[in-house]
Write a structure and sequence with these properties.
The protein is of the alpha+beta class and 106 residues long. The protein has four helices and three strands. It has a three-stranded antiparallel beta sheet with strand order 1-2-3, covered by helices on one side. The chain is globular and about 35 Å long.
């Protein structure tokens, strides 16, 4: 995965996470794989860290305490390319996740 834009982070944090694999241990991976929003009200809670162990590193460097992750998808009726008004991207598979909006709270 590649981070295309971000705001509010220190340059070293952006550099560290600018390009990363979608591996287990990150909530963004779970959101992409499921296609469903993921909300964590306390990323430092033992249950959150047990499920997403890489949160400890990210939370420690950024000061994040909570996060909301929303997968963005493209879909088209019958798998055909649809116009921008339909919210689809030409050439994308039906209901394919094409990006993620992540909001973090400190």
């Amino acid at each position: 995965a590649q981070v295309l834009a971000s705001t509010g982070y220190r340059a070293p944090d952006i550099a560290r996470w600018a390009d990363f694999p979608l591996v287990d241990g990150l909530p963004i991976t779970a959101a992409v794989r499921s296609g469903a929003p993921l909300l964590l009200d306390d990323v430092r809670a033992p249950a959150a860290l047990a499920r997403y162990p890489m949160l400890g590193e990210w939370g420690a460097t950024t000061g994040m305490r909570a996060t909301a992750i929303f997968p963005l998808s493209a879909s088209a009726a019958d798998g055909a390319a649809a116009g921008a008004a339909d919210g689809a991207v030409a050439g994308a598979a039906p209901s394919a996740v094409i990006g993620v909006l992540g909001i973090e709270f400190d």
